[in-house]
Write a structure and sequence with these properties.
Layout (H helix, E strand, L loop, with lengths): L1 H22 L1 E8 L9 E4 L11 H8 L9 E3 L18 E8 L2 E11 L7 H43 L6 H16 L3 E8 L2 E11 L9 E3 L3 H8 L3 E3 L15 H4 L2 E11 L2 E11 L3 H6 L3 H41 L5 H16 L3 E8 L2 E12 L10 E3 L2 H9 L3 E3 L12 H7 L2 E11 L2 E11 L5 H4 L3 H61 L3 H26 L8
Antiparallel strand pairs: 1-2, 1-5, 3-4, 4-5, 6-7, 6-11, 7-8, 9-10, 10-11, 12-13, 12-17, 13-14, 15-16, 16-17
Helix pairs in contact: 1-3, 3-4, 3-8, 4-8, 8-9, 8-13, 9-13, 13-14
Length: 569
Amino acid sequence: MADVELELRRELEELLRSACRIAGAGHAALALAESDWNVAEFLTCDHDVPCGPDVAWPSVKECLDLTPKSQQVVRIPARGDALTERPPNPQIASLLAVPVRLLAESYGWLCLLNKAGDADFTDQDEELAAEFATSAARAVEISRLRRQQRRRERWLKGASELTTMLLGEVDLFEAMGLVTRRVREISGAEFSSVVLCTPEDCSEFAYNAVDGLGLEGSAVRIHRPGIAASVIESGRPVVTNDVTQDKRYNPPVEWQERLGVLGLAMFMPLTASEQVLGTLVVGWRKGSPEESMAAREAQNVQIFADQAALALQQVRVQHERTRHELWVEATSRLASLLLREVDRDEAMRLVVSQLRGISGADFGGILLVDPSDTDSVHTVVFEGVGIPGVPSDLNIPRQGLVASVIESGRRVVSADYARLEGHLPPSEWQAALSVVGLGMLIPLIADGQMLGVLFAAWRRGSPHENIAAGEVEQVQTFADLASLALQRVRTQNDHEELLLLQDRQRISRDLHDHVLQHMFGISLRLKSALDLQADLEARQRVGEAIEDLDETSRQVRAVVFGPSHDDVG
């Protein structure tokens, strides 16, 4: 920004020389109030030589100290001013000072000194000086806006770097390190850090990235409360002019001495998709020029924080994508295994073990219904920390949530499952299941038939609990696979019965086509022979043989076709 400062200085020097020449003053001085944008405090010129320290600022300021705080025009005549109760500074014979002001903004003073010929400055000189003061104010304001624009461009460039980074794979610590470094480089801050809630314990916060004051690479945790905690809870930024005096100030103990140099500090929420992920902390050295500049840039710091939040969100998305790939892989592997010939109990144990392995569930089980038993369900598998060995086909009462899911066909998912009305586990499981936070009870349905329920649960505060809460559909997929496996086992049993029935039908056809027809033919021939037999005893014996043969045919038909088939067609 040196070119902007140089251009402004040259413009102001030319303005002062013109004021000297037109007003007939020996010197002109421009005294600017301390600026947020590092504008020079004092310039002095005469109409013959370039600007230089011909008239010292303390001499001019001594006269301006007499100025009323209302910043009205000051005119000190050559003969002195009785109202001041002391003569002007010996270096200053006469003085005309007008405020440099644009609209309501005050920039300082434009002074004309030592009117030629020891004359006094006139009303016309005052009007002229006021015009030059307005021109000076415009020049300073334009320079300020240009500086703001240049600085804003630096902020946007830094934000663009983060955006570019988001297009690829993002490492959490690399992304947060870039954020803390760039925010210091752009803003002139002494310290910056990213504070995130620790996943395993949200009562703690971790400084995941730190830059400045020799604390680079530090990684510490702090407990609630604190400014960072209030920002994460409220989602609103906190800007404090003297952070070390803020009652909520709660840095790590080992950092307090080094952070004691900070004055202005900003705590900006890292918000993405309406969720506060953490806090960006930026602090400036007390009394530094950068501190006063930064006071106007809270919005730019927040924009930077928003980009940092997007980087954090990208990390989470990548993590979720990786986890999704693990789910897909596990589901595919499980489906492949279940397509083979499989035992029912073995299949259900496989479903539960795979589900617990990928989701981190602390408890898992499958309970099946028996259409002939409406009062109980029986376990195929049920396991978890503190659950005693559960034998297969153990009957437990069909009641509470289990009965509700079986009757309605709708799943139950709750972040506080153990406290739900209707959670009625067997007494020997109650102590183990009392620690459950997230719980899912999902119906097993195939071809519209209720087969049972799948249970999955996580301990309250488990590191897997929050992630699993967003994976209900993946658990549902495992339940669907379990349903298909159960249906397939039933299909296998039906297939075996069908084979037996087909064998029976084949045997029936063979008996009908050969044996029964042959027996029927024998019976007809015997009846014909009976008519030709004259011997009474022989006729009786042939008749008895015919009756025995017919009875045998009826019995065979009853076995093959059922008791209703009395005739051979």
